[in-house]
Amino acid sequence: MYNITLPSDEVPKHWYNINPDLPIELPMPIDGEGGHQVENLPIIFTKAVLEQEMSMERYIKIPKEVRDIYQRIGRPTPLFRAKSLEEKLNTPAKIYYKREDSSPAGSHKLNSALAQAYYAREEGVEKLTTETGAGQWGSALALACSMMGIECDVYMVKVSYNQKPFRKTVMELYNSNIYASPSMNTDVGRKINKETPEHPGSLGIAISEAIEVALANENTKYSLGSVLNHVMLHQTVIGQELKKQLEIAEEEPDVFIACVGGGSNFAGSMYPLIKDKLDGKIDAEFLAVEPSSCPTLTKGSYEYDFGDTEGFTPMLKMFTLGHDFIAPSVHAGGLRYHGMSPQVSVLAKANVIKPVSAAQEDIFKAAQLFASTEAIIPAPESSHALKIGIDEAKKAKETGEEKTIVINLSGHGLLDLQGYSDFLSGNLTQ
Fold it and tell me: Which residue windows are transmembrane per the record (predicted)?
């Protein structure tokens, strides 16, 4: 069985909230010294997502309109067996990948974007502001806002803005306004541009700019694409579908793998399966793969830190490289974030999941192998998961172990061809 597709009525009716099942109680957000960041949260976010952020309900109902749109945009997404890749590797391992790359925006990000735009419209919000790294979240929110009839401003990390110009085109087609960050629109951006005119930007800076705009404008709210609990929640439609598909395939996987930057696609695909591990129903390994150039989980400190550069957000207990950390300009822009989801951080701290890292050259090699065997060009972010999945399959070849590996393919790379061109020509700089 190489392609397991569920009917549209199998789209989950509820999101799964891992908060009540975490092995360690999740530390609450706190203010920075002399700040009012927690007090400002209702100004920044919609009421609905703030309620979800703090909720201890295990299952939260998906609004009918959101679920209907999930069905219209292609959910449930298919689960594929990577038979050609297995044959190329000559491995006894079975490799499966969940295809989140086939959404209209090209990634898993639309699952949360639609929910957040829906809640914003229902509360009378006229505009959402946000950040984006590689552009996948920005594209998703731009589309969601267009579908919900509200405006959208996107602050895109400058290095990715320049590396991926057609992401800007996609967002403009969805009627959004796109700004290279640091921009000249905000006090934060103007300050950084004055101090460091050639600054490549970072997700932390782009978040600060988007929040500054939301704080200053009535009927404008901020929307985050990763890290926070409510974003993790919305993505769990992936893992719930995946559980059903694995049951149909009669598979009990040994290893689950997804990339991590802020944590959304890892959480979405893995949380429903991690619940089974916490409940003692399965004994699988969960690998969270990050860039070796931005090693938040593998080399960061577990402490309270701001989610943005300027300190507009509350301080979150998470693995962090420091909110002023500037990652090298690798092509996996969606993983160039200094911090990690507090929930994912708790799971790493409790050794429920295992963080690993991968270098840029190696992930592009894995991506080329996957493209040449499975006919899909993966995003550089997803290629981190593919690289480690291929490593696991090679280990199985050495030991003769017939293990089953499941990878979340979180996005396509069709707008990342500059990165592929640099790789093929030997011009990768990091």
Answer: none
